[in-house]
Amino acid sequence: MNALKNSVRLLGHLGDDPKVRKLGSGKTVANFSIATNEIYRDSNGEKKSETTWHRLVAWGKQAEIAEKYLKKGSEISIEGKLTNRTYEDKNGENQYITEIVINQMLMLDKSAV
């Protein structure tokens, strides 16, 4: 049996404009989030909708494309790798983040094409 690959595919809408910055190394990074929606019926047969937010990270050329073409509300499809990281906040407390590092991104808005 083959080992499972760490791969995530999502289709959703941006919650805000990408936040793009240049690092000291010269690399460009973009951070943004997308919302995915699931519609289902509960045990009483009532239609319900549930929104889940996902943090995304794009590097290099993809970060530059995100900055140029993506805006709050843009619809995108992504494929990437699920990662976890820890950082220390201003108060010295450890914060834990789960995010998806994008490998492939497809812009679905007609205005972005």
From TrEMBL:
InterPro entries: NA-bd_OB-fold, Primosome_PriB/ssb, ssDNA-bd. The gene is ssb. The keyword Membrane does not apply. It comes from Maribellus luteus. GO terms for molecular function: single-stranded DNA binding. The lineage of its organism: Bacteria, Pseudomonadati, Bacteroidota, Bacteroidia, Marinilabiliales. Homotetramer. One of its GO terms (cellular component) is nucleoid. The keyword DNA-binding applies. It comes from the Bacteria. GO terms for biological process: DNA replication. PANTHER family: SINGLE-STRANDED DNA-BINDING PROTEIN, SINGLE-STRANDED DNA-BINDING PROTEIN, MITOCHONDRIAL. Keywords: DNA-binding. Coiled coil: none annotated. This is Single-stranded DNA-binding protein.
